[in-house]
Amino acid sequence: MPLVVDALLVILFCAIGRRSHDEAVLTGLLRTLWPFALGLAIGWAVAVAAASRMFGDAGRDARFDGTALWPTGILVWLGTLCGGMLLRVISGQGTALSFILVAAAVLALFLLGWRAAFSALN
């Protein structure tokens, strides 16, 4: 479920970005989305790998927590942001400093915010 929440929020981030620049949301969404979607997958892979490394043999008894702010949320956020930006550069899409800063802030709000709220409510 946390992966689905993250994926929906990354889609929302890309749709809002396209809309705020008066770009066609539906027709160009995939072009904007794919680098961040792959970055999200990278972030999740790193988070799962880090959890198994952190817990070692004890990890067999401990369950990976996709809702955790640390390390999962931070690693997912960094993977989505850095992976997305790197893939945008490779594919010739823009990565102006202002875009990187806005993306970092919005993705942090989305990917870390729901985890913080979830943690506070539980």
Structural overview:
With 122 residues, the chain is an all-alpha fold. Helices cover 80% and strands 0% of the residues. The chain has 4 helices and no strands. The chain is globular. The chain crosses the membrane at residues 33-56, 68-90, 96-118. Keywords: Membrane, Transmembrane, Transmembrane helix. This is DUF3054 family protein. It holds the Pfam family DUF3054.
Keywords:
122 residues; mainly alpha; 4 helices; 80% helix; globular
Helicity level: over 70%
Mean pLDDT over the residues: 91
The share of residues in extended strands comes to: under 5%
Count of helix runs? 4
Tell me the distance between the termini: 16 Å
Transmembrane segments: 33-56, 68-90, 96-118
InterPro entries: DUF3054
Keywords: Membrane, Transmembrane, Transmembrane helix
Protein name: DUF3054 family protein
Give the arrangement of secondary structure elements.
Layout: H1 2-20, H2 25-55, H3 69-90, H4 97-121
Helix pairs in contact: 1-2, 1-4, 2-3, 3-4
Organism: Nocardia tenerifensis
Transmembrane segments: 33-56, 68-90, 96-118
Protein name: DUF3054 family protein
